[in-house]
């Protein structure tokens, strides 16, 4: 299978005052075209740093990120990136925030409004079109950001804990919607989560990163779709994978982190 994105021996360090922080060290990871890869890892292990590199928002200090086999020199083409930070424009109402990417491309008003309204409905925000971001809850803003990202119809989705702030029911609804958008679309998804069950419900593959982005475990998820959490929770394969992923996460937290 063709890799749409690859981290090849990627290192990334930051300088803060006089210290050097190593966020990633010799990270190797391939994202195959059309697959849904769930990325798990303890806080601070470098997941967001890796997504920033995949998106082309920052450059590796060592190694390279490849897009379709070629070193990425700028922004990654066709990418939709949902960062952890809230990037909605505070002065634009919800509908106008979601329309923005199409407005920037010069899409006519009626067409972009129709698409924005469909996505607003999809993320469960119908009725809030004229609210400003400050008038929405954290979870609603997150869903609005997801809708704004999807309106560009990206071929590659980088999602950094997109559903972390949602209640259990909404989270499950959004997971179903995301899978509906993804399945059969040919899109590739890299989905960062702290939740093992979420990773197993969504992923074709689950990757556990240890400290500094070292891959600790990389396993395919051979569970048939659709996967209803209540049903798969008792599946022996799910239970065994859950156990292995939890162990890899625990192991990852024991890695020694030292600045070099
Ligand atoms: N711009 C920066 N300047 C300095 N250090 C940074 C910067 N960005 C990230 N780091 C450091 O790099 C390491 C990895 O951070 P990163 O945000 O990638 O972790 P993460 O796995 O996404 O964490 P979380 O799950 O908590 O979001 C951390 O030690 C963090 O403090």
UniProtKB/TrEMBL annotation:
Protein's name in the database: ATP-binding cassette domain-containing protein
Pfam families registered for this protein in UniProt: ABC_tran (PF00005)
Matches recorded under SMART domains: AAA
Domain of life the protein comes from: Bacteria
InterPro entries (UniProt xref): AAA+_ATPase (IPR003593), ABC_transporter-like_ATP-bd (IPR003439), ABC_transporter-like_CS (IPR017871), ABC_transporter_ATP-bind (IPR050166), P-loop_NTPase (IPR027417)
Species name: Acidiferrimicrobium australe
A GO MF label: ATP binding
Domain ABC transporter: 5-236
Keywords: ATP-binding, Nucleotide-binding, Transport
Lineage: Bacteria, Bacillati, Actinomycetota, Acidimicrobiia, Acidimicrobiales
